[in-house]
Specification:
Layout (H helix, E strand, L loop, with lengths): L7 H9 L8 E2 L5 E6 L2 E2 L7 E8 L2 E12 L2 H4 L11 E8 L14 E3 L6 H11 L16 H29 L4 H13 L5 H10 L2 H6 L4 H11 L10 H17 L20 H14 L3 H7 L3 H7 L11 E3 L2 E2 L9 H22 L3 H13 L6 H8 L7 H15 L8 H7 L3
Parallel strand pairs: 5-6, 6-7
Antiparallel strand pairs: 1-2, 2-4, 3-4, 4-5, 8-9
Helix pairs in contact: 4-13, 4-16, 5-6, 5-13, 8-9, 8-10, 13-14
């Protein structure tokens, strides 16, 4: 078997989009073949197309259709031992390099497409999959209409929200279907930004919301609980605030039988001081001090602007002149900024509301999640810059999330044939 730049998905694309003629074919053993029904594309396990219908030398056969780049892939995938493939009436391949049999040792009629694929589709496909550009179609994407790109962006943004909500669902399951606790963990994760998401999640899980609610009217106690559970009160500093928190935490630790996380988990390197985990923990404690029943408040909020106000938090006086314990810095307000809250809303609030709508079959909250994204400004990062250079703009966060999904889930994976833009280009439109 030789190598081929073609992938099986290309044959799937040609077949499901009916880019091939229905007759004029000869099977590999010399029989006249006519395609009467291409079948139904199967995205799950089993044969690639169900309920196909073909005619071979005048005899009509109904059943499933399987596809591979090479016919020998049949054995490679062990279909010869799988009875689920016994109803395959046609094996469609790019190149026939080996006869194949089902579990009863009956030969499977085979159609080889090499030399029969219209040149426009083959050339377009190879140009995409062999592209060395960051966006495989970047040299020709301008040929696709803005209307079609915008339609695809909406689908992508919802797809990304849905993917994020799957992660939220895992957290929801782990909290015993507690929506307040779930949002609490999600918000904590994204207070950690990219580098400290995992330790922030562990921090929230180590300090259940129930304990936080019991102490929420005592700011210093909350600071002690969060910094203590973060493992940041184990050191010794000649610092009155530190000593006060340490003493308070020791009391609360015994009271609730708490176990702190390993402080080694926290990353400070290459972060701007405003993003130090110490500052973010102080801000998170401030939010939990200020707001009770966060999920309920956000669920009932009238609009995104109101949610943004809910998520605003201040910081204890100590942290206005410190970035880390024991190290004095210039006096600076370190409240959660607007851009940071935007990211919380994109990554935590919208996915939780989206999932809540799905679980409860309530479109109100799905629409609310989308409206939040449409209200927020487009994100600024390398991916969005790349699309801007191709004159594909993001007018809000809903758009920017769509373009991030397009780049990471399609372009980077060379899933051009699963992309509406790729399909347009493939079709020569």
């Amino acid at each position: 078997m030789t190598n081929s730049p073609l992938k099986e998905e290309f044959i799937h694309f040609l077949w499901r989009t009916k880019k091939l003629p229905i007759d004029g074919y000869i099977t590999t053993d010399g029989k006249v073949l006519e395609i009467l029904d291409f079948g139904i594309y199967n995205v799950d396990a089993g044969p690639d197309f169900f309920n196909g219908k073909i005619k071979i030398d005048g005899t009509i056969w109904a059943g499933n259709i399987e596809m591979h780049v090479f016919s020998s892939d049949w054995q490679k995938h062990k279909h010869q031992h799988d009875s689920a493939y016994d109803n395959v009436v046609l094996h469609v391949v790019y190149e026939d390099d080996k006869p194949v049999l089902n579990t009863d040792n009956v030969p499977i009629p085979t159609l080889a497409l090499k030399g029969k694929i219209p040149k426009i589709y083959l050339d377009n496909y190879l140009n995409l999959v062999q592209s060395q550009q960051k966006i495989p179609c970047e040299s020709i994407i301008h040929k696709v209409s803005e209307e079609k790109i915008n339609f695809w962006k909406f689908t992508l943004a919802v797809e990304r929200l849905s993917n994020k909500s799957s992660f939220v669902n895992d957290i929801l399951t782990s909290t015993g279907q507690d929506w307040e606790e779930t949002l609490y963990v999600m918000i904590a994760r994204y207070f950690g930004s990219k580098v400290n998401t995992e330790p922030f999640e562990r921090l929230a899980r180590s300090l259940p919301l129930q304990i936080v609610q019991k102490n929420k009217d005592k700011r210093q106690t909350l600071d002690a609980l969060y910094f203590g559970q973060a493992g940041m009160l184990m050191a010794n500093y000649t610092d009155e605030y530190f000593e006060t928190l340490k003493s308070e935490y020791q009391y609360q630790q015994k009271k609730y039988n708490l176990q702190p996380i390993d402080p080694v988990a926290w990353k400070f390197s290459k972060l701007r001081p405003m993003n130090f985990p110490t500052v973010r923990i102080a801000q998170f404690a401030g939010l939990m001090y200020r707001v009770s029943f966060l999920f309920s408040q956000i669920k009932e909020a009238d609009n995104a602007a109101e949610i943004k106000k809910i998520l605003t938090s201040d910081i204890s006086e100590y942290w206005k002149t410190h970035y880390r314990f024991g190290l004095v810095s210039t006096d600076k307000t370190k409240n959660t900024g607007s851009n940071f809250i935007d990211l919380l809303m994109i990554n935590a609030i919208a996915p939780v509301l989206f999932l809540y709508g799905k679980v409860n079959d309530d479109e109100t909250y799905i629409d609310k999640a989308i409206s939040i994204m449409e209200y927020l400004p487009a994100e600024k990062n390398n991916i969005i810059t790349l699309w801007n250079e191709l004159n594909i703009k993001a007018k809000n966060a809903f758009d920017s999330q769509a373009l991030i999904q397009l780049k990471t889930a399609y372009c980077d994976q060379q899933r051009c044939l699963s992309c509406k833009i790729g399909n347009e280009i493939m079709s020569g439109k």
